Amino acid sequence: xxxxxxxxxxxxxxxxxxxxxxxxxxxxxxxxxxxxxxxxxxxxxxxxxxxxxxxxxxxxxxxxxxxxxxxxxxxxxxxxxxxxxxxxxxxxxxxxxxxxxxxxxxxxxxxxxxxxxxxxxxxxxxxxxxxxxxxxxxxxxxxxxxxxxxxxxxxxxxxxxxxxxxxxxxxxxxxxxxxxxxxxxxxxxxxxxxxxxxxxxxxxxxxxxxxxxxxxxxxxxxxxxxxxxxx
Length: 231
Prior knowledge:
With 231 residues, this protein is α/β, with parallel strands linked by helices. 47% of the residues lie in helices and 11% in strands. It contains 9 helices and 6 strands, in the order βαβαβαβαβαβαααα. The protein has helices spanning 26-37, 54-67, 84-89, 109-125, 145-152, 164-177, 184-193, 198-215, 221-230, and strands at 3-4, 44-47, 72-76, 96-100, 128-133, 155-158. Strands 1-3-4-5-2-6 form a 6-stranded mixed beta sheet, sandwiched between helices. The longest helix has 18 residues, at 198-215. It is elongated, with a radius of gyration of 19 Å.
């Protein structure tokens, strides 16, 4: 399965560079933006734990590439059904390919060789590859030495997750843009009773937006408790 990005509506609009709170990650963000929009910019390997914004940046890069007149594809390897090697080899014909969660191929010989061949093909064709994983290349259990070497030679963008105060600020800003007020009492309860990584919180905000609109109710702790219990 491949996922191409000529249509911005495939992806939540919040996954754009302008909606990424860079904080201490500003240098990493600019490196990814440059790779997305300039064919001669260095390729980037984005590393960071779940919730640090890796997927957000890769999807933002694809949209930025399209806005700059390039073609782009996004390939999420984690949780993909079927042979990963076939999925990787099936990606072709785009100016930018963003491959998410490459730690999923560690130890899979066919997939590692497919990624190695794709790396060489894109380099020869003057196109751009972006990668992401939970950790830096040296920390991954990739068995193919030449692949490890090539990944390690890229610009390394290591993301630091936002702290609680920054996550609260992002959540409040995104809620306000939708006409939802999240007061401190609601945020305190949410951070105490729900997963606190930003991606999960923003997914919950999507659910809150629909539920509060359907119920014509403001978001309170009882409303939030009922919604989470129902889910």
